[in-house]
Amino acid sequence: MKIAAHITSTVATRVFQILIFLFTSIALARGLKPELRGELGILMLIPGTVVQISMFGLSSSQTFLTANHKKGEREGYIGTGIILHLMQGIASMVAFLAVYAANQMVWKDYELSLVLLACSMIPLQFLASGVLHTFVGLQRIHLWNLFSIGRSLLYLGGIGALWLTDTISVPSVVVVNLAIYAAEVVFGLPFLLKRPFPRITFNSSVLKQFYSFGMRSYANLVIITFFYRAGVYFLGHVDNPVQASYFVIGLAMCERLLLLPKAINSVLFPASARLKGEAGDTLTGRLIRLNIIVFIPMLVVAALAAPFFVPLLFGEEYAPMVPVVIIILPAVLFLGTENVTMAHLSGIGKPQLVTLPRALALAICAAGCLWLVPEMGAFGAGISMTAGSFALAAALAAVVARQMKKSVWEVFVPSRDDFRLVSDRLGKMWNEKIKKKIAGEKRP
User: Which of 21, 247, 328, 432 is 20 to 30 A from 379 (CA-CA)?
Assistant: First the structure.
């Protein structure tokens, strides 16, 4: 029941974030020309890519170690993990600037002030990631959701203020993002560090625990980072910022539909770390199938609505983005399945099992982009991403089924019991709603 409550509250949070995302995306689309929106998307890849490449799985280790230690032991891991995030974030920022100074990066044509502004987010992203992953490890999902809502409201306020004052620009949007990460760190740390100087342990045993698990998931994080960004990289390489903006916004819109699998991921990861054997496998299989049952109707509705809502929300100049959104939607189903299976494999301490499937997906996506992007632009990048996502889901299905010692059909194909569970849950929610309505009408 606790897991179901956590998933329900997280899904509600994600729905709220989708609404905020729509408002802010409309404001950015109205305030920036498509080519500037594309430049913003490419520029914002700097901190995100550097963080993922240089994280070495540290945040995953933070969740795993926090979930696997009892109260009294985990405080030391929390304090040590936060300090490691800070040190690694500063080192990553310095390393990137050194490489940038050598004039070897794809962002070398941007103004130095913009690059420095974007890079200043790197240590803050490290710290914010450490804070939020600790909440997940402690299973304080309510705090994680609270911070997610706060982040969305801050972003809405920042972008809304820029839009109302007609001051939306690439630098001002970067500043808003910088302020949000700073707020997450400032307000998040007091919830975790209950003493002015937390207990820090930097011995070989503790560091080995942090980085042994982290390095097993490191390759996965790097691969999936480049997988999500491959289309933008190739579109940037062919110098087509308008097509880049279509892909960036279209992908961001489709990613918001991953609200259910990401909610399951945040709950299943620490749960799988605590549940062992058949109990954990049964829970994971049920959640995978429920995710598929809910997802397919959602994607059909999104595909039918896209031709009407994209031009309405973003303006007629973004009408060519509709085919891009539709071709990316199937990838969301495959990536949603990957999110759930990845949470299970990480929770049981075997994140390395995802490496080869993700590498296969990246290879297919990169080859497709190399072939299709020069001729088809953002639509070609979408085709490539969907093809890679399908390969990823298919390979992971085989890996997870083998790990559970079950058939792919048993684990991934919804059964009559799964449909009955969804039906009963929806019926219960509807009955509760009717009861509340009747009770309200009876009041004088």
Answer: 21
End-to-end CA, the chain: 35
Task: Give the C-alpha separation, 181 to 132, whole Å.
Answer: 11
User: In Å, how far are 77, 192, 211, 242, 271 from 71, measured between CA atoms?
Assistant: 11, 13, 22, 52, 16
Tokens of 313: 């929300």
Q: Which residues contact 208 (CB under 8 A, 6 or more apart)?
A: none
Spatial distance between the Cα atoms of 141 and 65, rounded to a whole number of angstroms: 16
Per-residue pLDDT tens digits of the chain, which is 444 residues long = 455 666 667 667 767 777 787 778 777 777 777 666 666 766 676 677 777 666 666 777 777 777 766 666 666 677 777 888 888 888 888 887 777 776 554 455 567 777 778 888 888 888 888 887 777 777 777 777 788 788 888 888 888 888 888 888 878 888 888 888 888 888 877 776 655 445 666 666 777 777 776 676 677 777 887 888 888 778 766 666 778 878 888 887 787 777 666 666 555 555 555 556 666 667 677 777 777 877 788 888 888 988 888 888 777 888 888 999 999 999 888 888 887 787 777 767 777 788 888 899 999 999 999 999 888 888 999 999 999 999 998 888 888 888 878 887 877 777 777 667 656 655 555 455 445 544 554 454
Give ∠ CA 218-220-224 in degrees, rounded to 5: 125
The dihedrals phi and psi of 341, each to the nearest 5 degrees, come to -65, -35
Comparing CA positions, the residue from 220, 176, 249 lying closest to residue 26 is 249
Task: Tell me which residue has tokens 């802010």.
Answer: 24
Angle (CA) 361-363-364 rounded to 5° is: 65
Give the position of tokens 């070609």. 380
What distance separates the 2 farthest-apart alpha carbons in the chain?
75
Q: Identify the sign of the CA torsion 308, 312, 317, 321.
A: negative
Residues recorded for the chain: 444
Q: What totals of helices (H) and strands (E) does the chain contain, helices first?
A: 18, 0
Q: Name the pTM for this structure.
A: 0.67
Cα 419 to Cα 310: distance, rounded to the nearest angstrom: 32
Is the distance from CB of 358 to CB of 228 less than 8 angstroms? Answer: no
Q: Write the burial class of residue 309 (CB in 10 Å: 0-12 exposed, 13-18 middle, 19+ buried).
A: middle
